[in-house]
């Protein structure tokens, strides 16, 4: 009986530890800076629909003409699909305006809140960005 109780306690502890780790990776403030909003204009070069977040690779031309690759974090694939945002909605090669927040580590990385398409359509990206929880809207 004592062995069974020990096994149950260990399993419960592992489950709790896993739950804490999963919730910890969603902490916006740990990776991104609410005081550093950013607006980027660029072309979608690649879209990774992987859990727990989607990653959008955006080619942004700097003022001197050099193209820089930015990584923009979005919501999970499931979250985006539920909001009506799929890889068919935004194909590779699409010009976008991205609103989001810079990464704290100073790299070309940000969390996206919205994509704005050339026709003015605004797509929420879900994920951890403040205000990114709503549905896609025109």
Essential attributes:
OB fold (Dihydrolipoamide Acetyltransferase, E2P); 138 residues; alpha+beta; 24% helix; 5-stranded mixed beta barrel
Count, helices: 3
CATH T-level topology of the domain at 29-124: OB fold (Dihydrolipoamide Acetyltransferase, E2P)
* Average pLDDT rating: 80
Please identify the structural class as seen in this structure: alpha+beta
CATH superfamily of the domain at 29-124: Nucleic acid-binding proteins
Describe the structure in your own words.
- This protein has 138 residues and is of the alpha+beta class.
- It has a domain at 29-124: Nucleic acid-binding proteins (OB fold (Dihydrolipoamide Acetyltransferase, E2P)).
- 24% of the residues lie in helices and 38% in strands.
- It has three helices and six strands, in the order H-H-E-E-E-H-E-E-E.
List the helices and strands and how they pair.
Elements: H1 2-24, H2 28-31, E1 32-49, E2 54-61, E3 67-73, H3 77-82, E4 95-103, E5 109-116, E6 122-124
Parallel strand pairs: 3-5
Antiparallel strand pairs: 1-2, 1-4, 2-3, 4-5, 5-6
Summarize the structure.
This protein is of the alpha+beta class and 138 residues long. The chain is 24% helix and 38% strand. Strands 1-2-3-5-4 form a 5-stranded mixed β-barrel.
């Amino acid at each position: 009986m004592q062995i069974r109780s020990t096994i149950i306690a260990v399993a419960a502890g592992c489950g709790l530890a896993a739950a804490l780790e999963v919730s910890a990776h969603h902490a916006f403030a740990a990776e991104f800076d609410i005081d550093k909003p950013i607006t980027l204009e660029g072309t979608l070069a690649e879209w990774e629909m992987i859990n727990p977040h989607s990653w959008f690779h955006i080619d942004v031309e700097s003022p001197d003409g050099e193209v820089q690759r930015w990584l923009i974090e979005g919501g999970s694939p499931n979250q985006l699909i539920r909001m009506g945002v799929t890889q068919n909605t935004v194909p590779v090669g699409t010009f976008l305006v991205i609103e989001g927040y810079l990464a704290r580590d100073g790299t070309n990385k940000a969390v996206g809140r919205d994509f704005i398409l050339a026709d003015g359509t605004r797509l929420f990206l879900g994920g951890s960005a403040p205000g990114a929880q709503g549905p896609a809207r025109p």
